[in-house]
Amino acid sequence: MTVAVASGKGGTGKTTVAVALVLSYDRNSVLLDCDVEEPNAGFFLRSKSIKKEEFSVPVPVIDAAKCNLCGRCADFCSFNALALAGSKILVFRDLCHSCGGCSLICPQNAVMEEKNIIGEIHSAESDKIFFVEGTLKIGKAMSPPLIREVKKYGKGENLTVIDCPPGNSCPMITAVRGADYVVLVTEPTPFGRHDLSLAAETVSEMKIPLGVILNRYGSGYKGVEEFCEKRGIEIILKIDEDIKIAQAQSEGKTILDVCPEMKDKMCGIVDKIQKGLTK
Amino acid sequence: MIVAVTCAGKSIDSPLDNRFGRAESFILFDLENGSFTFLDNEQNLNAAQGAGIQSAQKIAKSGATALITGHTGPKAFKVLSSAGISVYHSSAKTVKNAIEEFKAGKLEKAPNPDVESHWA
Predict the structure, then answer these.
(1) What range does the domain containing A30 cover?
(2) Does residue A82 sit in the same domain as residue A143?
(3) Do the chains contact at B49 and A95, CB–CB below 8 Å?
């Protein structure tokens, strides 16, 4: 079973929840940190990275000796990564989506492929948790291929938890796609409510069941509960606002260290999802 | 010699469009006889990405050898200079004024792009 932990708004507690879920679970599990622009779940697992691999995507390179400047590759590219400019074809690697169309369409076989290294995959194994994170290289804009690569590690286990990137655009959708259930973490503020509504709409469109964890509960703002009530979305857990939790996290500890009762609650959530009781 | 000018409107008296990649249209002005034609740019105005690259290819195909616009970014500038098109940045109010500046030799050929990608 794969559970994706997402949110619209950043900083609501996705990593807090994702880490707590795998640490509470009694059997083997996989944690995939797909927030590749700033992965941080690894801080809380304290696992030493055992394996580092470079990750690259193929991008075109033009063989000038074969190219007759017909420009079909540039016309074909939907992403404008290729341009016919005077007596050569220019390649803008960072605009390329690696579809391979340019090399298929070239009548001269002048389009070769080379590697554009966009990030790294780190993996580490402890007693019960297999942890994988992707880290996108600074300055690279295209995170979905790296997110898809990280997700390849999450097959065939009892529980796979995906720590998703914030927002509701391609990176979040790539991370969430294929999950059996999505936990949306939010906070009791108008901002939290607003972004939750966008995330809930996105996940519903993808036809994946979802539930909400309301973190930092107790501000008195009721907008999130009203929204969930209106949309028939279940709030599967409320985590009280507590400075102890923030302090623990700043020291690299987890919510389980200061709120031991969370272990049962997290196990309960996994059980409940597994039994299909939440809709 | 044909000079391309970014145009925010449909006439030679229309404002000079400050943007290159997402300019509304281009006016191709023939300096020899003073005639001009329009080149629509709606497709690039709405492009998801790479509008500057596409517009630069369009200018290269049009036969123009010089471009007058408000600003150019790095990718567009790279395509334009590879295609041998001279770039002139102007703050003229209208297309007509920009062409007059150019004819009077008041514009300097830009050695580099003057804005970052996605500046506007």
Answers:
(1) 2-47+126-274
(2) no
(3) yes
Q: Which of A76, A80, A89, A93 to mutate to test the interface with B (most CBs of B within 10 A)?
A: A80
pLDDT at A158: 87
Q: Read off the tokens for B74.
A: 């790095």
Take residue A173 and report the two structure tokens written for it: 């959708």
* CB contacts, 8 Å: B56 with chain A: 83, 85
pLDDT of residue A156: 65
Residue pair B93/B18 in contact (Cβ under 8 Å)? The answer is no
Residue A53 lies inside a defined structural domain of this protein: no
Residue A32 and residue A65 in one domain: no
Statement: residue B119 has pLDDT above 80: no
Segment A155-211, tens digit of pLDDT = 766 899 999 999 999 999 999 999 999 999 999 999 999 999 999 999 999 999 999
Q: Are residues A171 and A248 in the same domain?
A: yes
The CATH number of the domain holding residue A241 is 3.40.50.300
Q: What is the pTM of this model?
A: 0.84
> What are the residues facing A89 on neighbouring strands?
A84
Does residue A52 lie within any of the structural domains?
no
- Identify the contact set of chain B against chain A, taking CB-CB distances under 8 A: 47-51, 53-54, 56-57, 60, 75, 78-80, 82-84
Residues of A in contact with B60 (CB under 8 A): 84-86
Q: Are residues A70 and A146 in the same domain?
A: no
Residue type, A131: F
Query: How sure is the predictor about A151, in pLDDT bands with cuts at 50, 70 and 90?
Result: very high
**Region B2-103: CATH code:** 3.30.420.130
pLDDT category of residue A277 using cuts at 50, 70 and 90: low
Nearest-Cα distance to chain A for B61, in Å, is: 9
Domain boundaries, chain B: 2-103
